[in-house]
Specification:
It is built from 19 helices and 9 strands. By secondary structure, it is of the alpha/beta class. It folds into 3 domains: 260 residues, no CATH class; 100 residues; 87 residues, Arc Repressor Mutant, subunit A, CATH 1.10.10. The longest helix has 27 residues.
Length: 495
Amino acid sequence: MDIKDWLPEFQVSAETDRDLQTYFFKLPAIKDIIESRAWLVLGRKGTGKTAIYEHIRRGNPENLNGYNSVCLNFSDYPWPAHQLYKDAMAGELSAYQKSWMYLFYIKALSKLIEINKIKGKQLNKDLKWAEKYITTIFGNPDPTLREVLFSKVTRLKSIKGPSAGFDDISLDAGEISLEEIAENSQLKQKLRSNAFTLLMHFEKIFKDNIGDSKIIIALDQLDENWLEGQIEEYSKVLINLLNVCRNISSDENLSDKLKVVPFLRTDIYHSLKFNDKNKLLQDSAIVISWDENSLNDMYYERIKKYKPNDIILDEEKDKSGKVFEVSFVRQGTPPFKYICRRSFFRPRDIIVYFNKIRACHNKNATGLYTSSELYEADREASISVYNEVIDEWSNQFPVIENLLTVLQTIQVETFDYNDFSEKCRDEFSGITDGTIRYYINFLFDNSLIGQKKQGRWEYVSSMHNLKINIQNEFRTHHALKYRLHLIESRPSQNI
């Protein structure tokens, strides 16, 4: 049987991969999220943040250390809405923090009510009151992000707490749009006042009733849809999100009961400016990282799911490489290692590369991939990596295309700082020495270029503690070689 008949093309996006749970490779990060005190997940684009998030979303308390999951995707989240909660009197920061807490306690309380109902427990007076308010204001006992944001909270005439009876909720007639609130200071004040009064009640009810239940709130795609010119404002919103998550994790009344876990791109985290950033990174963050072995295991899980029983693949070494008819390719390199060295050590890169090999494959006697198909895919994968790099950085680092052009105009894979500096001055008029230095550091830190270490070309993605040395030669990452039309400067270079 030919490999193309049983091994499919895989979805690159975790959200659209329906089979993810069946071949999901459990990184240590998963265990850390649900068992340790860490609550912040960091990773470069393509490292599997969304795959872990989807695992939590589709999981149940039995495999999530007792946690019931609430998962919020921010891909189409209208970020400016947070600005409506700014309160000049209380200060911008506290208003942002309260708006996050408001969201979390609504979602946590809604989940707690659902848990109690599933267990067949009678809701007490406080929980009935909360359920009534949530359903009336948000139009749903388990409101979505947008329902929370565009709620009827501004239309509440007054808020009578749980002790006053839960049936008494009166709304002003007519809908009030977000635009109307933004333009009207009275409405804005009413939004804040009502939301924050509810927050006070919801927080207390949640803490009083959580009991033995455990809830984890996971937040994904927080780095999507940032509009140019708004980055500073978004940064404030994110910093306050992190402060709220930290406060919840250190709240003795919530210890091990409620956990809010934002999934964030590493570069965005490093771009934020706030106190104790490094301390938080050390104490509370889980940084997703992969090596050749874990990537091999990751892809082999997929092979195992689809492999027919009559096809025997040796699992001892280079497991995923067994889908090739040869054990070694150029310079005696095992196939999977060859692929890894042409990646940024991210699952996405590996999946894309194998998809490209599959597209190049023609049926043959062995029914497996060939070395020539591997080399042919190299070129296609290079185009894909180039596009990924631009997609990854265009918002936060708009000059990325110009920098890739600089590497292209150098024409050879290996170059020195003077080569880079010269081409930068051609590409950017009036560029300073400091900016050139900043640019080469950026390329190095993100593995687009690397340097030799112990006689071999390495990159930060393959050697995390690699440090830049301006005096030494650089090399553009092999994954970009074909798309940038680079030639080797010396035939003796190793892969």
